[in-house]
């Protein structure tokens, strides 16, 4: 079997179980174990190179001799204290049983592994003459020798994501590939292209790997979830934007790092002892929305419902405008760190005339029987808040962004006379 077929075969040897949450990375070992989480450090030391991995959960193959004790625990599913375990069993109902009272029961083990100080809760998936295979949900920091890794796979970007990074690979033959790296092993790199095809590129043919922002209108640093700390004789913190393994004849292989001052710095690969990863505080994931209806209005991602209004005139109060229905209640919108409020609407003629105004609390006008919210055409003209920006999104929506303080506001759409109350906290 050639190396490419072996790589595809490795990809297809997937566990027949659903993950509790979609992991950022999965590391599959040669013994069949699969670690879910994300890499926090790569240590380069020749044959002793290793990966430090933050594990959320793991399908772990363990030689029987390394299990020092196992204790059987049968529990009612609803009594489990871990929401992660509940979610996992709900995703795998075939692994539960029904007791005589109709309750769903599950079986978990409390296991002690050699060299580990604490016991862990585990589900026993498989048992062979020599090994156990457990599923364990436990946040751990694991050191994985690189020579034990069969495959690393990465979560695919959601189609609705509007920022992130694009991987660009150039081969020694000057072939260029663009997409998202979704897998890697010692022989091949798997790149998901815009057409939905995974292209397997032999690692010994790759000259350069670079990254670019998915959204060219936003800074790269806002589109990268982790920062790189490249450690050698000195350290550089930033984003590795280029891995050049085949530079020009007068240069040695090197990394290019966009540092914290947004300047590019190079470091020779042979000088790099490790690469750490840390959470990027400036990361701002953005996602577009597919609206259910053409008249939908989403406020900071929350669905809003219109409240009834009626033309209302009160001569005694010298009032001529609109009155909202008595039971009108605002939707509560949490404020963001930068006090921004985003409206997402369909980019059509219906939404050409939108107004956003502050509105006072309920009042009772003379001759009225109840307190209500009121507004006038004059309010719409004089109090209308101008948006900070208006843009068309990836899926053809209109995104209208405002800077707002906490308070009560009214959105009014003139073309269908609809009103929406929002409370910004």
Give an overview in words.
The protein is mostly beta strands and 425 residues long. 6% of the residues lie in helices and 48% in strands. It has three helices and 31 strands. A nine-stranded antiparallel beta barrel has the order 1-2-19-15-16-14-10-11-9. The protein has a five-stranded antiparallel β-sheet with strand order 21-20-25-29-28, with no helix packed on it. A four-stranded mixed β-sheet has the order 24-31-30-26, with no helix packed on it. The longest helix has 10 residues, at 3-12.
Major beta-sheet overview? 9 strands, antiparallel, barrel
Oligomer: single chain
* Poorly predicted ranges: 1-16
What share of residues are in beta strands?
Answer: over 45%
Number of helices: 3
Gyration radius over CA: 29 Å
**Shape, per Cα inertia axes:** globular
SS-derived structural category: mainly beta
Strands, total number: 31
Mean pLDDT over the full residue set = 89
Strand order, biggest sheet? 1-2-19-15-16-14-10-11-9
Cα distance, first to last residue?
A: 62 Å
Summarize the amount of helix as a percent range.
under 10%
């Amino acid at each position: 079997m050639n190396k490419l077929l072996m790589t595809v075969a490795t990809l297809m040897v997937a566990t027949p179980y659903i993950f509790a949450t979609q992991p950022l990375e999965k590391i599959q070992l040669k013994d069949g174990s699969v670690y879910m989480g994300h890499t926090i450090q790569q240590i380069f030391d020749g044959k002793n190179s290793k990966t430090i991995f933050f594990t959320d959960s793991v399908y772990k193959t363990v030689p029987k001799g390394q299990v020092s004790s196992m204790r059987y625990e049968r529990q009612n599913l609803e009594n489990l204290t871990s929401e992660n375990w509940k979610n996992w069993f709900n995703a795998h109902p075939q692994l539960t049983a029904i007791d005589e009272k109709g309750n769903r029961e599950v079986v978990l083990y409390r296991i002690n592994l050699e060299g580990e100080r604490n016991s862990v809760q585990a589900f026993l998936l498989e048992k062979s003459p020599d090994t156990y295979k457990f599923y364990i949900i436990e946040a751990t920091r694991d050191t994985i020798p690189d020579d034990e890794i069969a495959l690393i796979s990465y979560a695919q970007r959601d189609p609705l994501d509007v920022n992130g990074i694009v991987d660009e690979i150039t081969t020694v033959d000057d072939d260029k590939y663009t997409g998202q790296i979704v897998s890697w092993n010692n022989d091949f790199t798997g790149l998901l292209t815009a057409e939905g095809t995974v292209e397997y590129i032999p690692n010994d043919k790759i000259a350069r790997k670079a990254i670019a922002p998915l959204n060219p209108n936003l800074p790269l640093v806002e589109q990268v979830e982790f920062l790189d700390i490249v450690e050698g004789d000195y350290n550089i913190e930033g984003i590795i934007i280029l891995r050049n393994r085949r530079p020009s004849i007068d240069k040695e292989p090197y990394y290019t790092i966009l540092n914290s001052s947004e300047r590019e710095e190079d470091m020779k690969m042979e000088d790099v002892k490790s690469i750490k990863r840390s959470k990027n505080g400036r990361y701002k994931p953005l996602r577009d929305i597919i609206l259910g209806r053409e008249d939908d209005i989403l406020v900071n991602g929350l669905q809003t419902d219109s409240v009834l209004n009626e033309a209302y005139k009160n001569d005694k109060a010298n009032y001529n405008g609109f009155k909202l229905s008595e039971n009108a209640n605002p939707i509560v919108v949490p404020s963001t760190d930068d006090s921004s409020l985003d409206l997402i609407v369909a980019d059509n003629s219906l939404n050409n005339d939108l107004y956003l105004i502050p509105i006072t609390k309920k009042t009772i006008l003379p001759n009225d029987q109840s307190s209500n919210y009121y507004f006038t055409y004059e309010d719409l003209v004089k109090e209308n808040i101008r948006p900070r920006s208006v843009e068309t999104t990836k899926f053809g929506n209109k995104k209208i962004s405002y800077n707002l303080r906490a308070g009560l506001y009214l959105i009014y759409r003139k073309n269908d006379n609809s009103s929406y109350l929002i409370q910004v906290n």
